[in-house]
Structure formats: C-alpha cells, structure tokens
Amino acid sequence: NIELPPKPETRSAAAQKVKIGIYFATWWALNVVFNIYNKKVLNAFPYPWLTSTLSLACGSLMMLISWATRIAEAPKTDFEFWKTLFPVAVAHTIGHVAATVSMSKVAVSFTHIIKSGEPAFSVLVSRFLLGETFPVPVYLSLLPIIGGCALAAVTELNFNMIGFMGAMISNLAFVFRNIFSKRGMKGKSVSGMNYYACLSILSLLILTPFAIAVEGPQMWAAGWQTALSQVGPQVIWWVAAQSIFYHLYNQVSYMSLDEISPLTFSVGNTMKRISVIVSSIIIFRTPVQPVNALGAAIAIFGTFLYSQAKQ
Ligand code: 3PG
C-alpha cells in the first residue's frame, strides 16, 4: 500500500481551489465590515453621493501611494486601455451610487435581498441585448429568483421606492460592469488589482461633478455639523472605515474575477449577500417577518439553482 504523491497538475488544481477559497472568504468578510460602517455613516450623515465619492477617492489615493512607493507595481496603460475602461467605469459609478442611495433609504438587508436578483438581470441582458440563448432550466431558475425578490419586497416593513429602485438600477449597472470588465481584462497585462485601481480613479473623475451637483458642499457642511454633534468625532473613523473597506473588498473581488468566470463571480457575489444580510439584521436589529425571510431564502435558493442550470 504505497501512497503515490499527487500528480503536479492535481496539486496545482487543488492549490488554485484553495487560493480562490481564500479570495472568496476575504472578499465576503471585508464586504460585511464595509456594509456595517457604510450604514452607520448613512444613518448619521445621509449623503450617499458624497460617501460614494469618498470611497472611490480613498481607494484611488491608496493605490496612487502604493504605486509611488512601489509597494505595488504601476500598470503600463495606453489610451486604448482607458477608452475600453470608460464604459466599465460609467457602469461601476452608476451601480455604486445607486446601491448607496438605496442603503440610505432602506435596511442594508433589503438592498442586498434585491441585489441577490443580479443573476436574473445577467440572463435578461445577455438574452435581449447580446442575443445569447440559454437552456430552458436557466430560464426556469429565474422564477424563484424573481418571485423570491418580489415576495421579500412586498412584505418589507420599511419599503421605500427609492431604496427599491436604487438596488434594481445597481443590479442592471453591475451586470454591464462585469461583462465589460471581463472583456477588458482578457489578454491584457494589467492585473485584477491594478485594473480595479484604474477603475476607481476613472469612476472618481466621473462621479465628482455629479455628487457636487446633486448634494454639494453646503449640504455636506451642514450635515457634517449635525453628525459630529449627534455622534461625536468617531463618525470620522466610520467614514474612513467604510472608504477603506470599500476599496479592499472590491480589490479582492477583482483579484478573484481575474481567475474565475463571470458566472462563478456572480454566484460568489450572491453567496456573499447571505453573510451581509444575516450580519446586518443582527447588528442593526432589523425587524423581519417570517414571510419576508422566506422571500429572501427563495431568491437565494433560486440563485443556487441558476448556477447548477448554467453549468
Ligand atoms: C456599492 O456601494 O457599490 C454596493 O454596496 C456594492 O454592491 P456589491 O455588494 O454588489 O459590491
């Protein structure tokens, strides 16, 4: 009974699995922390356009410093790269602001329940805009996803139309972002980490004028005074935490997108929402009715069926 050592290719396949597993676990943990601080900030300082801008600004700054100090190697990019990145950045900006606006109006858990419907958007966009067709089971798996989200929405105790629409718009925008990013990253020498850094910088440039137009310095100054007087100086740390963790979780998610298909990515993303939904309900003591929880569970189960049908 001599045990042979595993073949090199089996070993490297196992190592790859472990690596993706570590990426996923880190991505989900960072995302939970981001969501908690983001909501704490939005409760005290309800200016989602500014907080979205600060998250992008913080990430851009972290990466510019890393490149300048050679902690990370700066990417070699040309005009063509930034041109291809532009639509991705537009989609990223819209998806990010829309999700943050949503979370400023409703419970974090509700935004993420609606966002668990992202695979349905992915199929509909691929079918109607890209002309891709799928086997019947894929379409059938959309029924529990859409039905579960709808049930959760109609039974949500604190339903708010802006909160609901923000999450829906974010779903649509992120489907485009993921399709375009995967295309943009294919065959390019820019790593997932640097690709996301460039995406942050471009999104920041796109978002800043809109944030000033929609909210603007006067509102921010008045809101900031209120937040400081009600919460105290710790609100500064909450803003810093939400910005830093926003960048980190996205960076890790792009590092995994580098290695996996958009499908695996979107399934991993939906599974991530389970940890966010559960932890935010516990931390913010969000009231949930059983039928509301049932809707969320059906939607998430639908995503699982979808991933099976798509394989
Ligand atoms: C955002 O602010 O961009 C959203 O919270 C992110 O949504 P995601 O969970 O799809 O990354």
Automatic annotation (TrEMBL):
Q: Which residues cross the membrane?
A: 20-37, 49-68, 136-155, 161-180, 192-214, 290-307
Which parts of the sequence belong to the Sugar phosphate transporter domain?
19-307
Which keywords label this protein? Chloroplast, Membrane, Plastid, Transit peptide, Transmembrane, Transmembrane helix, Transport
| Topology of this chain in the membrane | Multi-pass membrane protein
Q: In terms of one coarse class, where is the protein primarily found?
A: plastid
| GO CC terms, sorted | chloroplast membrane
**UniProt name for this protein:** Glucose-6-phosphate/phosphate-translocator
The protein's organism comes out as: Quillaja saponaria (Soap bark tree)
Span within the full-length protein is 86 to 396 of 396
